[in-house]
Design brief:
Helices cover 66% and strands 6% of the residues. With 169 residues, it is mainly alpha-helical.
Length: 169
């Protein structure tokens, strides 16, 4: 579970298996350059680490902070999405009005190559904006936090040790 993550507090060297169930400083054992001769059983170390993780992860203020940040980000995404959709709608309306004016001018006999070119550009812009409008409108809503999420979170963290021990490596 903690392989490669453990370091000696005295020298910074790796803590590795010294026997089938104990860990110790590799610099002390192999090089003799560290005075730390303490060892710890793998079971005791894992129990301490997982206990500390569970204790910290289950702190109510930690989950409250997560929920607050999640809701703030959710609101930011919704606001940004809404602003973008409003801007695209406005641009599309403006483009449609400009197209109508050119079409009316052509229909009244004020046809010119410049008007036709402008109309072609505006129609391309209209198509682009309609595509963006569809894509922006199609963005799925971000899910609100479920009211029972704190309890589910607590159960998952409480079961952390069992989950880590039984997960495939």
């Amino acid at each position: 579970l903690l392989s490669g993550l453990l370091r000696c507090g005295a020298c910074g060297g790796a803590y590795t298996m010294r026997s089938s169930d104990r860990l110790g400083c590799v610099s002390h054992r192999e090089k003799g350059t560290c005075d730390n001769k303490r060892t710890i059983t793998l079971v005791d170390l894992e129990r301490r680490v997982l206990s500390g993780l569970k204790e910290r992860l289950l702190a109510p203020e930690l989950f409250a902070e997560f929920a607050e940040e999640y809701r703030a980000e959710l609101q930011r995404i919704r606001t940004s999405h809404s602003e973008r959709l409003t801007m695209v709608d406005r641009q599309l309306l403006n483009t449609l009005q400009r197209i109508d004016r050119i079409v009316n001018a052509i229909a009244e006999g004020t046809s010119s190559q410049a008007l036709k070119a402008k109309l072609k550009n505006l129609e391309a812009e209209k198509n682009r904006l309609e595509t963006e409008q569809r894509e922006t409108a199609g963005i799925p809503e971000v899910v609100e936090l479920h009211p029972n999420l704190p309890e589910l979170y607590r159960l998952r963290v409480a079961d952390l040790e069992s989950t880590l021990r039984h997960s495939p490596v």
